[in-house]
Amino acid sequence: MARLADYFVLVGYDPGKRGSGDGQGQILQRFPEKDWEDNPFPQGIELFCQPSGWQLFTERNPPTFFVAVLTDINSERHYCACFTFWEAVESAQPQSHPRNGEGQEEEEEEEKEPSSPVQPAQLFAPKSLVLVSRLDHADVFRNSLGLIYTIYVDGLSVSLENVIGNLLTCTIPITGGAQRTISLGAGDRQVIQTPINDSLPVSSCSVALLFRQLGITNVLYLFCAALTEHKILFLSSSYQRLTDACRALLALMFPLKYSFTYVPILPAQLLEVLSTPTPFIIGVHSIFQSETQELLDVVIADLDGGTVNVPECVHISLLPEPLLQQTREALSMVLDPELEVADLAFPPSTISASSLKMQDKEIRAVFLRLFAQLLQGYRWCLHIIRIHPEPVIRFHKAAFLGQRGLTEDDFLTKVLEGMAFAGFVTERGAPYRSIDLFDELVAYEVKRMRAEEGNKQKILRHIKELAEKLYKNENPYPAVTMHKVQKPTEGCHLRLHQKPFPRLDEGTVQWIIDQATAKLQTAPPAVKAEKKCMVPSGPPIAAIMERNGNALANSARRLEVVRNCISYVFENKMLEAKKLFPAVLRAMKGRAARHCLTQELNLHVQQNRAVLDHQQFDFIIRMMNCCLQDCTAMDEHGIAAALLPLVTAFCRKLSPGITQFAYSCVQEHVVWTNIQFWEAMFYCDVQNHIRALYLDNNEENHADEESTEGPQEARSALEIASEQLRLWPTMSREKQQELIQKEESTVFSQAIHYANRMSYLLLPLDTSKNRLLRSSGLGDVESVSNSFVTNSIAGSVAESYDTESGFEDAESSDVANYVVRFINRFVDKVCTESGVTNEHLKGLHVMIPDIVQMHIETLDAVHRESKRLPPIQKPKLLRPNLLVGEECVMEGLRVYLMPDGREEAAGGNIGGPPLLPAEGAIFLTTYRIIFKGTPTDPLVGEQVVIRSFPIASLTKEKKINIQAQVDQFIQEGLQLRSCTFQLLKIAFDEEVASDSAEVFRKHLHKLRYPQHVRGTFAFTVGQSPKQAMQPKAKEKNPSLRTLSKNLVKNAKKTIGRQYVTRKKYTPPTWEQRSSQHFPEDNEDEISVSEEMDRSTLTPTTTIKPSDKMTINHLVERACCRDYQRLGLGTLSSSLTRSKNEPFRISTVNRMYAICRSYPGLLIVPQSIQDNTIQRISRCYRQNRFPVVCWRNSRTKAVLLRSGGLHGKGVVGLFKSQNAPTAGPSQTDSTSLEQEKYLQAVINSMPHYADAGGRNTLSGFTSAHMSSSDFSDKRQPKLGSLMKQVMGGKDDGPSTVSHGGKWGSIRASGRVSSYALNMEIGSRLAGKDLLGAQHNGTPSEPSFLRQHRASLYIIGDKSQLKGVKPDPLQHWEVVPIEVFDVRQVKASFKKLMKACVPGCPSTDPSVAYLRSLEESEWLSQIHKILQISVLVVELLDTGSSVLVSLEDGWDITTQVVSLVQLLSDPYYRTLEGFRLLVEKEWLSFGHRFSHRGAQTLAGQSSGFAPIFLQFLDCVHQIHLQFPMEFEFSQYYLKFLSYHYISNRFRTFLLDSDYERIELGLLYEEKGERKSQQVYKSIWDYIDRLNKKAPVFFNYMYAPEDGEVLRPYSNISNLKVWDYYTEETLSEGPSYDWELAQGQPEHVEEADRQDTGAPQTKRKIIWPCYDNRGRVEPDAISKLLEELHNLEMELGQVPERWKDTWDKVKASQRTEARPEGSRTPSSLLMSSGLSHHRRSLGVYLQESGVGSTLNLSLDSDTSSTSTPSSGKQGGRRSTSTLYSQFQMSESENRSYEGSLYKKGAFMKPWKPRWFVLDKTKHQLRYYDSRMDTECKGVIDLAEVESITPGTPTMGAPKTVDEKAFFDLKTTKRVYNFCAQDVQLAQQWIDRIQSCLSDA
Question: In this model, does residue 1560 exceed pLDDT 80?
């Protein structure tokens, strides 16, 4: 029960203070006069009675009523109901006049009034009746005060004292929905209804009114402002409205209570309160609006104007989004129901808003729902720390926000931090109390609200239900008996003669009050039993949030990945773990994955400890760091909390007795420095312990109950607490004390535990480093890389040192002090909150410094040890496979292979995981630089990446600085570029000391540039460096060494004598120039030269016996075989001098005396003497005089080569003899001899001789033009060819336009021979190009010469200046411009940069194609092809050509070899090409060592790829004529790679002479035995070719004698894929042994590791796999399968070549009968028409075989040219070059397997026998595949064949008749065949051979 009113006060105007302008009020009377004990009298009531100030008015105002609210010091609210009326003031009376009593005063007034003649302006003063109460019953107050006023005004006969006494003694129940009727004893009756539940605010209509005044949005603004603690000011001209508005706002905030300044009506005198810094809700009369203008941070709501003004500087956080919208909609449904149906055509008539009172409740219902949604699940985040003596409860704000997914939300965060919410937790947190509407709503209705979302009807229904409850709470008894209170008569306040309010008799009132109090004390206390109960918690947040989708965003798949990864780590499957790792790190962005991680890790902790090995430890640390780095300092998802126990559980042993725990590696996160986090964690743990404390008790007491009740332990701590609180009053005092003490010690022990934990996470591993507790997180996850983590992240990252963190001086104890202070602060706060005793608290403060110190000491040891740890286990270094004889020079240095400008490997343009960067090691062997490693991207972690190149091919090495891993420091690295188009861009790992990197570079340099060629790999391979030759060779063929020594001696003798020359200049011999003294450039200086001694040089026709050996060897050289094939004379003819041959083989250079760089045997015209040759040679550079290298078998034209002429010779040769010469006569004997020489060449041509000395046109044409069938071949006009070749400076594509497009001539049928001749004649006249018109005919007709020259000399334009054409001569000079070696070098450099860029180009202008064009490589190829095609044309039309460019060993060699390749199909076979290279490149002295910079001497000159350029030209021709070459593109690549690799000796040194000097040239025979190491690339190719069809071109189907004329326009050239392709899986595929069989076992090793299901799918990466091997072309695959099947059947497999030939033969026979050729047989048949130029036949070349794409359309097969008729019957290709076949293996008349009895006492063995009719011998081999013949039976020695008998040890199963014997002169051979038929066949074959002989 409570008093209705505490005080009644009468306040009047105080006339004494009038002068000061503003008047003041004074309390005239107050009842009771002494304060109630429980409720002191509030001060300052007079201010509130006239809030706008006490003033006198000139007229009477009607009485007013309002309720002001005062808040006392205990924040209790007092409601002051003020009823104010006006009384007249006596103006004339002196102010000091005392009032003696009311009656007397009234009389006086009456007397005076009439006596004043002039009525002065009457003034009226306000007087207030005030009721002060703690209850807010405004209506009752209004009625009661109104009643008192009525009694006074109307003069009712009721004692005012009685009424006031009754009013002050009236008591009413506070709550419980009681209805009380009171009467004040004036015939009145009032009914007071108290609310059922006083926790719900009473609002009557105020809320609805507030919304009417301000509108939905404005009120929402105010609501949010109030909740987020902003200052709110209401303005209105009505005091009652101010009070109502404030009351409404408070009612909306329920269940939160406003706890700041709350003054609904602020008196004018107190306006400065508005500038208080604290939040407030205040109402002020609008007359003070101007005073409120300068308030900057106050939200002002003008109730009268309906506006809310939010200043700029104030930001009001609004409700989180879906709620805001839903609240708005709900409010508009309540306030404006017509809105919904406003657009309906037939709106329902019934809709109208509820009554104001109901509407008020509906609005409150909306807000109540809103709070239930905002705070749903709040009880799950309460931590109960103490239960007894009274509950201490904390709210875990971070967890609540995290679970609700609202961490980012301003509004909720501010609300939870606010005072109101703190009050809410204290008030509503208690687990055992009475509950109200809100508790029920938040516990039981949340699910329903979720379900109804979006359904307006249902929402409205719910709102109405709630509104009903609220209404019922305020008005429990709807049918109220009406109040009956007298009201004053209308207009009574205007009565003129109103008596003043009488003075009341204090005694009477006091007496009534005393009576009542006495009565109350005797009455028994009305105890209202509180209905306490356990507060329901409602569903946990997680259950509610599910539907929100937040939690589901993490798919189960991700969690699966996290789980798998962790289990791989603990099962030690590191490779698998590594693969999943990036995915796990990515998943960690989602919180479900982070929770999953903590749960999984928990499973692996046994007994609070899990010892890991280093790699596991590292993985776990990285996961933890990743997990933590996305957590904010609040740790709203409890991740850090879940990890906290784990970081002290996972550890690794560093050394005996020293263990490193995970916490030392995860300290870098803000969350550890956040004291709120620690508090929440602490409270959480305390709660668990306290719960356990009571659970244990219960289990002991209620063991039996439990079984019936089921899972009882699942009860939450709050439930247990509520149970305990219920029992508390029933417990004995001792029991209570015991519980209190238990709880206190629980908290205390946790505090100690936490002090330890905090020191773990706050003290850095390296305490000396002074890591400050950083305020920022860790940056990106990856930054916690391996090496960091192990050697303490803390240390290395935190070297920076900032002072903000509260460190002033950098003593080592700083960290300790800081940590101690931090922990002390924490302990103080939590212990005082949770009621730890003071003694305990002191003890803690003493303990903390010791804990910290102790921990620092253990950390020091750990830090020391962790420093010693080897860096994290990097992937183990993979050893590269080495060749036989290849040895490691330097063990692997750990490096990263960085991606260069080629994007494929880095996952660029084709996508896919990046193979680079890869981590592995770089190895230096005697032969190669090899990188082998694995990609750092774990998705391709089990692939192996290999990049290597021969050391000899290194062209550039530069130091670079690279950032190897995103997160690591810049490391030093190297960029190594190789001319095999490979780039190794490596960054040394930090473990590689920089000096070992230096050592690596030095070794590399030494190996790259050995002092002498002997130092190269081809020599050093497989032997100790000391011995130069293998001893085996000596025993076998002793004469060899002596021979080469003799040779060298002789040569040296001849050259030995040096003397200073006459002024006549002879170029220094080449050897001298190649030595260091003469750099390449000063060739033209006159210098000491080695003039040969004439006497020793005059060659004799009889050869000394000592030279016979030499000659024999020379004859066996390739060139000699070729000369014989070409019919260019035999050696015997040169000795016996038969005159019928035009050419002879001269031995003049057999001692390499005349020309050091020429071969020993040369072809010269028959008529020229050797001594003439010697003289002629001097006119040419390097003494390289013209020699014949090829003859056209049809036109008999010859191709000659030579060096360029020296200046002297040229002029003498070409100026006509009778012309006057300037200076001394130059007609020297040598130039005449030179002329004779050239004439001899011309005479050798048959048509020249036939025509009687002069070559007339008709003779020439009739003899040759008509007979040759070149007319239907595609043939460009020669003239146009010449034009293009000679075309001025510009040798780029632009000159092509002069000669018309080549292609245009192709189809023009027969070219008239007359035109052809005219063209040539005119073109060769040496006129400059400009003279010619565009159609190609010359402008001056006088130049038409009717004959074509017999010999064209192609020379360098610069050398042939001033040469006049001479009509009498038969030769003509074609001056052309060529590029020199310098240009080739420059171009090649640019080409390499284009194809293998060092880094990705950011600049789009440096695109691949552009840089390719700028390199001008293709222009050079175009030029070479152009010249070659011109020469081919000339030779084909019967003119001989002498190519005489530069020194005769670079471009000359390129052109001459290409001409032969184009003209002669033999050179397009494997054997022929080898011969061509040996003859033109090796024998004729292309300077391989010099151009390849193979030794130290060549280092300065650099690498010039002349031979590579030639191979590229061949590749271009191959592309255009894919059916003309027996070898594949792979063969060309193989040569390109190995001519610079120095693996073979073939391409070493600069000439035959040097090779002999080293004893290289003839050792091949002698050294055959050392099988493993191949000295010659040709042997290697032969052997490989027998094994596999790598070098073979399946499309080979040549035309007989076809001359190829490729297009050379740049548009027709393709970039060779040799420059761009790479195979990272195995490195370059050109070292065949290395690549073989490697992939299979690698994969098996990986397979065991994976549990994943295997798929049959093959993924082939362009830059990784060797396509040819992984996915071979159809034919290779079939051959391979055939081979495997034969092996399975146990047969000796057939050679692939034989199989292939058989297939071709059968194809041919099938194709014949039908007459029409099908495309498939097209490939095989050789009779393709001339449209063979790569129409659709496209062979994609690959490492192993070739992919066949036969897209030959059927129409092309029928469109053969007219002549194809006679070609149709041509013989098969297999016979095409059998005439040239020298190698024994190919001549096999009959072959098969026979058993042969060994020599005496040896067993029978099966052998493979080959009967060779050509060589007339029977050879046998170990097996069919064997290349080495094991023995030969010469058939000439066979005497007889007889049937034999089985002897001991013969095969048992064979029929006796299958045995036969072969008797030779030396011994008897016993044979045995498989069966009788075979034996018979063998006997027959051998017999027939014998009879043939």
Answer: no
- For residue 1502, the SS3 value is coil
Q: In what order do the strands lie in the sheet with 77-89?
A: 24-31, 7-14, 123-133, 77-89, 64-71
Token digits of residue 135: 């209850």
Give the dihedral of Cα atoms 1830, 1836, 1840, 1841; nearest 10 deg. Answer: 40
- Tell me the two tokens of residue 1432: 């081919």
3-state secondary structure of 189: strand
What is the DSSP-derived secondary structure letter of residue 347? -
Give Cβ neighbours of residue 637 (< 8 Å, ≥ 6 apart).
399, 402, 403, 591, 594, 595, 631
When pLDDT is averaged across residues 306-310 and rounded to a whole number, the result is: 91
Residue pLDDT, tens place only, 207-232? 889 998 999 999 999 999 999 999 99
Contact 241, 209 (CB under 8 A): yes
Class of residue 602 by CB neighbours under 10 A (exposed 0-12, middle 13-18, buried 19+): middle
**Is 905 within 8 Å of 998 (Cβ atoms)?**
no
pLDDT of residue 1428: 94
Q: Is the pTM of this model over 0.70?
A: no
| pLDDT of res. 106 | 35
Q: Which two three-digit tokens encode residue 1255?
A: 């070559």
End-to-end CA gap in the chain: 148
Choose the weakest-confidence range: 1176-1185, 1271-1280, 1405-1414, 1417-1426. 1271-1280
Secondary structure of residue 1300 in the 3-state scheme: coil
Radius of gyration of the chain (CA): 57
How far is Cα 1470 from Cα 1473, in angstroms, rounded to an integer?
5
Taking a C-beta distance cutoff of 8 angstroms, is the pair 1450, 1034 a contact? no
Winning range, highest mean pLDDT, from 312-316, 404-408, 904-908, 1262-1266:
312-316
Provide the CA 281 distance to its chain's centre, in angstroms: 57
Burial per residue of 1701-1715, b for 16 or more beta-carbon CB atoms within 10 angstroms, e otherwise: eeebeebbeebeeee
Kindly report, residue by residue over 770-804, the tens digit of the pLDDT: 444 443 333 333 333 333 333 333 333 333 333 34
Q: What's the whole-number average pLDDT of the chain?
A: 74
Q: Are 1422 and 1179 in contact (CB under 8 A)?
A: no
Distance CA 1625, CA 302 (A): 80
Bigger pLDDT: 565 vs 700 = 565
With tokens 């002596």, the residue in question is 1042
DSSP state letter for 1598: P
Residue 838, H or E segment: helix 838-868
CA angle 390, 392, 395 (to 5 degrees): 155
Burial 318-353 (b: 16+ CB within 10 A, else e): bbbeebeebbeebbebbbeeeeeeeeeeeeeeeeee
Which of 675, 726, 716 minimizes the C-alpha distance to 692? 716
Give the DSSP H/E element, type plus range, for residue 1198.
Answer: strand 1198-1202
Helices (H), 1143-1256: 1170-1176, 1207-1214, 1229-1244, 1246-1250
